[in-house]
Amino acid sequence: MPLPPTPTAHPGHVVAGSDAPEKRRLRVGFIALTDCAPLVIAVARGYDRKYGLEIVLERQPSWAAVRDKLLSGELDAAHALYGLGYGVQLGVGGPQHDMAMLMSLNQGGQAITLARALAPRVRSGAQLARLVRASAERYTFAHTFPTGSHAMLLYYWLAVHGIDPLRDIRSVVIPPPQMAEHLRRGEVDGYCVGEPWNALAQSQGKGYTIALTSEVWRDHPEKVLACTRDFADRHPHAARALIMALLEACRYLDVPANREEAASWLALPDYVDAPRDVIAARLLPGRDPHAGVPGIRFFADGEANYPYLSDGMWLLTQYRRWGMLRAAPDYAGVARAVNRLDLYREAAAQLGIAAPAGPSRSSMLIDGKVWDGSAPAAYADSFAIHA
């Protein structure tokens, strides 16, 4: 597929003089997932060149590889799990290292899939709970990284239905592109992962989607643009230019017709390398399997991209809930250190994208609990099922 011509420059952007990127060629990692679309589109449509950058995309085999290459400097930035950076910041998702989250790349777009063999008996979380309690052996569920959103949303969904994810099941870590194959071989009974690996299992008749993660938390935070704090501090202009290029890509992806093109790009061997129709099945608006549940959001006038402090703090409450943290952290302090609101706001302002008045938002999750970041310690202690 040939590259389209570079778009006309936005009159407000500056890529020369003192605002020029300190480093123009950036190595950016990604995992083969539908929500890497902003990076693929930024390169395919030339948004990186528009802001004086050359993004070199490098597909990675696992989130652990993304983490390790960010910390070693082999990658300048990456499409990453929100919780990957937070785990590393706290030293619970790998060696401690100060991290930076530059923007959110999407909300939603993940799902929980079960093995087809369970379909006759399990069509709801309540039915799964009865099956788990009646079984003499523990069922095995996979997620993609210990501190990642897939693990935390899967645990939340299980616990809502009375399943203790630390005692009633066995959990394992599997890289996203390998999920459907592990399900096919009978090595796991279910998993939580991003698309298209839920849609693929369903299209092959090996699994079925029992819940979208948007049913757990509507418009939940998902992937982010991550780098080390050192990179952001040493290359603020490059980081800002990268945010601008990806904001342009996210805005492009909000147009339904443009997602048709994106599905074709993502299907290529260098990117997701999955059937185009499988990718499109849950990328295009109106194709999601659960009526009334929002699908993946990339922009929403910038609402999907703002790095809300409360989003990161929610992950911290779940780490505390599940015993990953021995004591309550400085919730707001950690979030302020990781989420680079300054760089995001500067980049958004250049593009005329409004930023919210405050750094937090309010959401109601599947259990009726409201999360707004105002009382994180009490929230973390409020769950009946916990470590």
TrEMBL record:
The keyword Transport applies. PANTHER family: ALIPHATIC SULFONATES-BINDING PROTEIN-RELATED, NITRATE_NITRITE BINDING PROTEIN NRTA. It comes from Pigmentiphaga humi. The keyword Glycosyltransferase does not apply. Transmembrane segments: none annotated. Its main location: membrane. It is found in: Endomembrane system. This is Nitrate transport protein NrtA. Pfam families: NMT1_2. One of its GO terms (cellular component) is endomembrane system. Keywords: Cell inner membrane, Cell membrane, Membrane, Signal, Transport.
